[in-house]
Structure formats: structure tokens, C-alpha cells
Amino acid sequence: MKQIIKTADLEAAVKEAKQQQLEIGLVPTMGALHEGHLSLIERALKENDLVVVSLFVNPIQFNNKEDLEKYPRTIEADLKLITDLESRTEKKASALLAFTPTVDEMYPQGEPKEVYHFGPVEEVMEGPRRPGHFSGVAVVVRRLFDLAQPKRAYFGEKDYQQIAVIRSLLEQIKYPIELIPCPIVRADDGLALSSRNMRLSPAARQMAPAINATLEQAAEMAEYEEVDDVKEWVLDTLASWHEVNDCPDGLQFEPEYFEIVDAITLQPIAEWAEAEKNGAVGCIAVWLDGVRLIDIVKF
Ligand code: AMP
């Protein structure tokens, strides 16, 4: 692994790789790496000649200043995880670049003015609740595409709506990049791994797997219940969890939304048959212990 901080150095490395006709895989992250991120990097190492992993906490995608300030930054540990992964992976890639730019390096002209719109895929779920978020994601991802010029780009299904947004971005900018969605990696108890999990108190961390457990039960219910009934059951089950279970410290789940949507268009469905072609996905955002957790289930 080689760490690169300057965009000019990344451009030079990419230029050289392109001259040798190497295939480049890009894994954009905000650092604070865990096994979920590592699964994306591992796959990229197996499928490409050169892998670029970016670790950059992108300020313009945070619509909440406190969330940005509290976002974990663990760069030294991250670089060690990447080095260890690289040495234990049976890989195709001959090189791995960890790109760790500063904000000034990424945005030398100050905060970028470009704004992206994605139509219906951003008008649901996270979109209205996090104004400007997806445009901020698109700005940084496009910048990374320009710098790394990947053949393939790897994104996790944990941020399910983000994948639809990147798919739309690629259609808009017409870059011939293959978008590779990767499955969610979970802790043994089912909780979707997330950099935000480290902000949960031990008691909240013990409660958190109930989110995935509820979604898994919902997937079973979907075989015989209507869409609206499954939706209502998930929201009620989590919102009343503390009434039925022993929850210390006044902890409780506060669901922000749970939507059952078409897996590609992300539009809410009223009948299972509406998602016959693309499949249906349930997407949830839940507050617990002051931390906003998201997860999905495929129906
Ligand atoms: P982040 O650093 O949170 O921006 O995440 C970087 C990439 O890792 C995104 O494409 C995420 O969807 C993906 N990712 C985060 N958590 C997981 C997980 N538990 N399983 C699989 N991918 C994940």
C-alpha cells in the first residue's frame, strides 16, 4: 500500500497505470474502516490491476455540522487495516493506493458550487431529510472518478439510495464506469457494520441488532401480508420496543422512516406485484441513543 495525499500525485500514478493499460478499481470511503469497507476493498483487489481507496470525510455531504464534527477519524488504524488486508488477500491487483487528501487538496477553490439533481430517486427517504446530501456525495464521487479514472467503482448496499444516485450520476455524466454494488457486512448479531456504531453506548449496542431482526421478520411476513401491513408492523415493532423489552437508561428506538420501494427506481410500492421486475427493498432509518442508523432488507 502506498499513501497519497496530493491530487497531483494521484493523477501521476493513474497516468502511468493508464499507459500500462492497467484496470483501476475505486473504493470511495470516509475512513473509520471496518469489515464492511474491507469487503469492498477485497473485491476490488480481486478484480482490478490497481486499486484506489479514498479516505476522505467529505464536508459538503454533511447537512448536520455536529455529525461532521463527531465523525470518527482514525486514519493510522485505517492504513494498518488496509495493509493487513492487502497482505492476506489473494489478489489480482499489483498495487493499492490509499488516497487521503485534505479538504483544501480536494476543493482548492473552496466549497464547490456545482449542484446535482437526480429526480425521483432522491425525492424519497434520505433525500428530503438530508437536503444537499446526495449532491455533495455526487460532487466528491465525480471528483474521485476524474482523478482515479476507474473502470469499476465499488459501493455498499448499506447506503442503498446512494447506489441509485451514483447510477443516475453515471447516466448524466456518461462515464463508462461499472458500478459494483456490494452486499452489507454485518456483525455476528446481525447489526449492519457502520462507522457510527462506535458512538453507541454498550447498552444501545446490545439493543441495535433488533433493527435487522425486525427487518428479517418483515421479510418472512411479506410472503403473506400486504405491503402497508408489513410497513406498519416494522414501524410499530421498533417504536414500541422499549415497552415490551427490558431497555436500560431510557433507551428507545425512534424510527424516522421505513419505506418499501422498487429496488431500482426507489419509488414506494403499494402492492408486491409492482416490484415484480426489479424486486422490492425495505429501507429504514432509526435513531437510537442519539445515533442515526440505517439498514435494508431485500424482499
Ligand atoms: P462510508 O465510509 O460510510 O462513506 O462508506 C464507504 C462505502 O462503504 C460505501 O459505499 C458504503 O455503502 C460501504 N459500506 C459501509 N458500511 C458497509 C457495510 N456494513 N457493508 C458493506 N458496505 C458498507
Outline of this structure?
The protein has 299 residues and is α/β, with parallel strands linked by helices. Helices cover 40% and strands 19% of the residues. Helix 2 (35-47) links the parallel strand 2 (24-29) and strand 3.
Overview of the molecule:
The protein is of the alpha/beta class. It has helices at residues 7-19, 35-47, 65-70, 75-88, 103-106, 126-129, 133-148, 160-173, 202-207, 209-221, 227-239, 241-244, and strands spanning 2-4, 24-29, 50-55, 95-99, 152-156, 178-182, 254-262, 280-288, 291-298. The strands form 2 sheets. Strands 1-4-3-2-5-6 form a 6-stranded parallel sheet, with helices on both faces. Strands 7-8-9 form a 3-stranded antiparallel sheet, with helices on one face. Helix 2 (35-47) crosses helix 4 and helix 7 (133-148) packs across helix 8. It is globular, with a radius of gyration of 20 Å. The two termini are 39 Å apart. 37% of the residues are buried. Bound molecules: adenosine monophosphate.
Stretches with pLDDT under 50, minimum 5 residues: none
Based on helices, strands and strand pairing, what is the structural class? alpha/beta
Average pLDDT confidence is 97
Work out the radius of gyration.
Answer: 20 Å
The tally of helices reads 12
Beta-strand percent range: 15-25%
Distance linking N and C termini: 39 Å
Biggest sheet strand order reads 1-4-3-2-5-6
Bound molecules: adenosine monophosphate
- Principal-axis shape: globular
How many strand segments?
9
Q: Please give the largest β-sheet.
A: 6 strands, parallel
Helix content: 40-55%
Q: What is the H-and-E element order?
A: EHEHEHHEHHHEHEHHHHEEE
